[in-house]
Amino acid sequence: MSASAAEPTVGVRRRRHLSWALALPLGWVLLVAILAITADWLGLPDPAAQELIQRRKPPSTEYLLGTDNLGRDMLSRIIYGARTSLIVGICAPFLGFLIGGAIGISAGYFRGKIDLLAVGFIDVLLAFPALVLALTFTAYLGQSLFNVTLALGILSIPAAARVSRANTLAWANRDFVLAARTIGASNWRILTREILPNVLPAMFAFWLVAISVIIVAEGALSFLGLGIPAPQPSWGGMIADGREALDVAPHTALIPAAVMFLTVLSLNFLGDMVRNLVDPRRSAL
Amino acid sequence: MSGAVSGGPLLSVRDARVGFGTVRGLLRAVDGVSFDLQAGRTLGVVGESGSGKSVLVRSLIGLVGGGSGAVVGGQVLLEGQDLRGLSAAGLREVLGRDIGIVFQDPMTSLNPVMKIGRQIGEGLQLNRGLDGAAAARRAVELLAEVGIPEPERRAVQYPHELSGGMRQRVAIAIAIACEPKLLIADEPTTALDVTVQRQILDLLQREQRQRGMAMILITHDLGVAAGRADDIMVMYAGRAVEMATTREIFRGPRMPYTEALLRSLPRLSDVAHTRLSAIPGRPPDLARRGMGCAFAPRCTYRSDRCETEEPALTRDGARGFACFNPLAAGSRVVA
Predict the structure, then answer these.
(1) N or C terminus of chain B: which is more exposed, having fewer CB within 10 Å?
(2) What architecture is the A83-233+264-284 domain classified under in CATH?
(3) Which chain B residues are closer than 8 Å to A182 by Cβ?
(4) Residues A9-46: pLDDT tens digits?
């Protein structure tokens, strides 16, 4: 880093925040994200191109991460797989948080019958075995990136609704909400201007954690063969394929597993850190 | 009836009731309170914690209810208009235009993620139809008016960058922004340092006089009400037990509870280390009230009648008290 020792106190505070515990996970997540976005321009071999003669090759200068059972380039597949994992991982919780957040915030704000209905709905969703619901969903609607995202998005509704409801309950009784009402603010205005901005930080922290949960869930779906359809690479699918050759070519399963592990771990670290930033402020106010 | 024209009271409350349904039955937090407030005057509502003073005033302007399962009754007339009969939108309009409220704790009464200036300007935009720029200019003027130095700089800061006293000044600026006719101050100094309390009370009084607002000053401290209120209503267990001008209260309370409150005030003339007199016992459980006077168990003047019958608020001209064994008129409290 270029921050010099001569810099004033602001620089010192900044450096303390940018410790390794933050820099490493952030760096890894950014690396994965940038590679996933720029995959088309990196000059990678086609992730679906099979070369059976070169199958199950260990990492070498020609194939940096080796090749899989069908002789496809692992590096290319990991990077294109990151694209799948990130699309599902980001969009599914986003969808869930949009719907769940709306349910949770209105339940926590309006209370009464709306709250009762919302909590009932959440409990019903939670009572479904999550993976079975997702399996049924993709089995009936067909396997596609969209359907997998939709299924996992629906699964993240209850958690999002609970987090947003709990946070809304804490904020809705604050005097500034009453004060807003006494200056004649409508419910909609109070919800969007007083409650939502205060609930968002906690939801953002939880969203980061939800991404990692969804990435793992997508992996589990693909592992069971009901995730992203075959030619399109995904980390879960790669682990499932590599399982067959664990004894002769362990790298085919271990590399995607390690990449997924690091990504999920990093996201969890980041989520915890954001939550720590959000929490003490709330208790201090 | 147009109260403003005929010189009637600005605010008229008749038989206000608030009950909360609990597992142990209906808890009567406010039990039949009536009072009038003339324009430009200050009413001090005094009582200990749980006496129902905050709930009473919040219920007047529809801030109690909703999901809390509260049962609200009685009549509230603001300039002759019944607030209880208004639609939600109608009530919002009246609240925004005619009533301002300052809460106890400025740590929770300001939105932590909105800049000060915007919080002040919000009401102006909603009720006065000002555009964003005009509201922002007016917000800076209001900040200066409530005594905040460097108002331009403060307007773009967030609440956590201000001290408690300054935040309460901001809360006052928000409350008076739309030129309300009635200002409600709900224990406005309880959460503040003693040194700041006086400044805030002075500010409230100055604004009230300048703008000719009526004010309801809720406090548990008779000393706070003493110098600031024209009239005082003493509340106990959800009822008004004594109502009089501030002079009369301090000249000679009629209700033993008021006397007990006065006795518990520390006096500068007392010898050092004088024991403060406390009121024995505790306030009654509002969910299981007996038949008699709620204060009877703690009262030194109680008679048999106090335990079986509840005294009504009897009026003696402008003052009223609820007691079977009132203190003689003009009996000074000497500690």
Answers:
(1) N
(2) Orthogonal Bundle (1.10)
(3) 61, 63, 95-96, 99-101, 175
(4) 444 444 455 677 788 989 999 999 998 888 888 777 77
